[in-house]
Design a protein that fits this description.
This protein is of the alpha+beta class and 146 residues long. Helix content is 35%, strand content 18%. The chain has 6 helices and 5 strands, in the order ααββαβββααα. The chain has helices at residues 3-11, 19-32, 55-58, 102-105, 108-123, 138-141; strands at 37-41, 46-50, 59-65, 70-74, 95-99. The longest helix is centred in the C-terminal third of the chain and has 16 residues, at 108-123. The protein is globular.
Amino acid sequence: MTAQTEFEFLLQDVPQNLQPICVELRAIIAQLHPDYVELIWPKQRIASYGVGPKKMPEHYVYIAPQTKHVNLGLYWGTSAADPAGLLEGTGKRLRLVKIRGMVEAKSAPVRKLMAEAHRFPWFWGLIAFEPLREYEPWQELMRPKG
């Protein structure tokens, strides 16, 4: 089964209005990190993204569709700067943003959190730093398209 097929399988029971949000969040991840590793966890109903197959040490963000919103989870969210106050949660490391619409998914604060999350596994020395893309142009991603 290909990653695209697995992702589509994950979305098949997701409400129609939330499916485009999931697809958009995945597209933003691809812009930030073209060589991402995607793992679908069917029992948890999440798509997880990182640099290798290990969920916590090598992944930095996940997409978890719910019934009325989509959770965008940051595995190292407690370390993220969140001036907009979007992150929720009380765990040791993990934080999430509840995304209810496409405008939110494309918003500059959400894009900034995703760009920052992409840096965490390297920042904490959990994996060897290997630049996958120049980071300075990520600021372009902060501007909503359209």
